[in-house]
User: What shape does this take?
Amino acid sequence: MKITNVQHPLLVRRIPETVQGTAQEAPGSGGAAEAMKEQVRELRETRRASMRRVRKEQEYAAEQRRFSKASKYGINPDGLRRNLTYLKHRASNSYFVRVIDASTDKVIREVPPEEQLDRIARMREFIASHYRF
Assistant: This one.
């Protein structure tokens, strides 16, 4: 049986080149040839699984590079430009952030929501009016 080196840029495996030669030399050893064929199949399946895993890792790395490049220039991965505005809520004396679409100047989101800060301010006023500290 001949063994050859299979060169691959990511994986290097040793796979039997032919299995038929061993079966022809010993007519009664059909089981050994089948076992070798099964080993070859297992090696190839292992290599395919490794290649799938490597491809998945490469796709993940490419996605991460795309995301980091987009966030570096203020573009989210969907291609939308957004601006962040930091504001101080006077009644509750807290800061909040507004996410604004740069093309339409529309408020997309507030973190935390301004209504929540209003509720906090009203609760503080209520507590301050009923209880003296």
User: Anything to note?
Assistant: The chain has two domains: 3-72, 82-130. Residues 30-72 form the longest helix (43 residues). DSSP finds three helices and five strands in the chain. The beta strands are 3-7, 12-16, 82-89, 94-101, 107-111.
